[in-house]
Write a sequence for this structure.
């Protein structure tokens, strides 16, 4: 098939085929609009070091055992330095992880008309969106995102096909417990006790996204997700064994030199967790959100399922008073999380640039 821009839009967006549909149709050349500018491409020349990055590995069960001090220390150090870590013994069974990846694959494998019903504007609810990034940064990815309000709304609006709703709910429940526990440890380290009323502040807005990254006729020319940091407090990620996520090293140390990109190979059964911008702001910069990106896979499509924990949209995010008192000054101004999110979305994927919106630069 040969697409010009007009029927490319019809095929990919209007008819709901997504980039997956392009590949399934036997596309032999990357359409011009999807060719990334040289500086956005993810390859050796752009310094992505495919070498294995031994990210910190946290044994979650250790938090409740005799080793808990040590586990807490490792967790805090990971959040302060590399901002990304693997977690094992997290409570999500191998079976659920497999079900989740299967559900994602099955969802995207459906004919376009089944997916199209969840497209923005026609979806039965704004909580559920099927889409692709046509017209933004032309990323080589399709997604289905599901916002969590309540079990009732999830049962009413989330897709029941392909086991999506059931399995994503299971994933979210376990992830929520895990996120709360991690935040407890990170906040305790800042001298703040987490109580139930803080759920809204740290995880008042939650969503799960299923991503599919199809192969492309020339994976070096396309990008799965461009350079960005996550906006919220924590992200928990399930991914298959294909790999392709890379992260930017924050500071010189055991993971590489500041500014270097390292690829994070998946560990079967482990979850990958990272810090988002809101937690960097709340902690006055103690915990680091991390720039990351996803390349297009070479031989087989990849799926990933991030669960995003964000402050409630009407929560004012800003550095904790206790931390500012200790540090002597606030590094960020307060703002509604909703405003932060809208600002960041308006900018597209531009590394950690969205944080400039709240950074205090004057002395
Ligand atoms: O697919 C991945 O590995 C990461 C996805 C991601 O960074 C995101 O959805 O924000
Ligand atoms: Fe991300």
């Amino acid at each position: 098939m040969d697409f010009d821009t007009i029927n490319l839009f019809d095929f990919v967006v209007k008819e709901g085929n997504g980039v997956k549909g392009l590949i399934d149709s036997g596309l032999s050349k990357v359409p011009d609009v999807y060719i990334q500018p040289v500086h956005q491409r993810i390859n050796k020349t752009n310094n992505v070091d495919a070498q294995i990055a031994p990210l910190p590995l946290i044994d979650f069960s250790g938090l409740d055992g005799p080793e808990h001090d040590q586990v807490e220390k490792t967790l805090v150090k990971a959040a302060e330095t590399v901002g990304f870590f693997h977690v094992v013994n997290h409570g999500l069974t191998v079976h659920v992880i497999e079900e989740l990846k299967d559900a994602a694959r099955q969802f995207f494998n459906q004919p376009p008309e089944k997916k199209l019903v969840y497209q923005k504007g026609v979806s039965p609810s704004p909580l559920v969106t099927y889409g692709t990034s046509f017209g933004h940064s032309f990323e080589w990815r399709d997604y289905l995102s599901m916002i969590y309000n309540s079990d009732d709304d999830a049962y009413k609006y989330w897709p029941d096909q392909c086991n999506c709703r059931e399995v994503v709910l299971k994933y979210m429940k376990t992830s929520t417990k895990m996120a709360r526990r991690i935040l407890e440890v990170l906040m305790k380290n800042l001298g703040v006790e987490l109580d139930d009323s803080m759920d809204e502040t740290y995880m008042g807005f939650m969503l799960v996204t299923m991503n599919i990254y199809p192969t492309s006729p020339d994976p070096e020319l396309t990008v799965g997700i461009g350079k960005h940091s996550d906006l919220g407090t924590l992200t928990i990620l399930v991914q298959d064994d294909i790999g392709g996520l890379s992260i930017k090293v924050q500071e010189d140390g055991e993971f590489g030199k500041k500014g270097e990109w390292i690829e994070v190979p998946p560990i079967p059964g482990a979850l990958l967790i990272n810090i988002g911008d809101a937690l960097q702001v709340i902690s006055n910069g103690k915990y680091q959100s991390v720039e990351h990106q996803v390349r297009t896979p070479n031989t087989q499509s990849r799926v990933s399922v991030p669960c995003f924990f964000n402050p409630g949209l009407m929560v004012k995010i800003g550095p904790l008073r206790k931390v500012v008192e200790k540090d002597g000054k606030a590094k960020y101004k307060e703002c509604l999380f909703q405003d932060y999110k809208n600002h960041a979305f308006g900018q597209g994927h531009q590394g950690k640039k969205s944080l400039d919106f709240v950074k205090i630069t004057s002395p």
